[in-house]
Amino acid sequence: MKNNPYRLLGIGLTIAGAIFAPVAYFIINSIPLTAIALSSIMVGFTSIALASSRPQISPEASQLILETGMENIAALLEELGLNHKAIYLPSSMRDGNAQALIPLSGEIDVRRIKGKIPRRLIVRYGDNPGDMAIAVTAPGGTGLDKMEIKSGPTSSEIEQAVTYVLTGLLDLANSVEVRMSEKQLDIEVTGPKLHFENVRYYRCMGSPIASIVASIASEGIGKPLRIQEESYQKGKNLIRLEVLG
Amino acid sequence: MRIYNRYIVILLLASCLIDVLLAYAKQTDIAVYFTVSVIAYLIITVLFIYLSPRTRRTLSMVSIVFLAGFMVVVVLKVMEVLHLR
Known about the structure:
The structure holds two protein chains of two kinds. In chain A, strands 3-4-2-1-7-8-6-5 form an eight-stranded antiparallel beta sheet. The termini of chain A are far apart. Chain A has six helices and eight strands; from the N terminus they run H-H-H-E-E-E-E-H-E-E-H-H-E-E. Helices cover 42% and strands 19% of the residues of chain A. The longest helix of chain A is centred in the N-terminal third of the chain and has 23 residues, at 5-27.
């Protein structure tokens, strides 16, 4: 916390403003220069406040924890040889958090999902013996119920919730735009800090940003979703979600 | 640009703009500069609704301090108008 740039900026602006204000007012006799010194003190205080409200855990530590979780799921996918795309389920269809369902064989027909999926790693989602899948918590699947801005079924509600999480809470992107049609959601994430990589984990689950978006959107719509397509161009992450069921 | 950096940059730009415009308008009352700056600060802070809850709580405390200063200026001006000072 010692080398926090916001704290250094804040202390610098506040001290400079506090020294310059009496000089400008009493010696130079200039009101506009005194006002600039006052503004400097105000921004300085704000910057110090920002420094003290930043999370204790460093971005490097957060990234390490995220990568550890992803490595574990990737190892599981590799070991089981799973290649199919995951389906993101809302918490109403799961016994607990919103989770991702990766089929052990073939694609999941969401019409076959009966009742709530139990809280286990390997789950049966339908009546057929082959309706088996593994259920994992994707990035963004936890803590959705504790969010101040809740996701809803409209594109603007989803956009607000995703922006709140990606920009405000996690600082993973600059802005988010959501367009919605009947069976499809197009999400444009500007300035993403994590990118898509062509590895098995990303092909199944999507990038961490796409996972977070899919979890929030699925919770808002209350229906299962699949990441249909994900691309990165001109500093934007374009994610296409397919609404199932 | 990170949301915190954007917030600080917008605050700095708004403060500079307000000071330059008021100086250009030959405003000589320091209270006017202060009150306009506080109003701009409050508006910008409210517009950044996507800041984390912890940050917004801290910024609310700073806003209260600035608002108190703003109220002191307003009370002094009212007393001046009413010839109580």
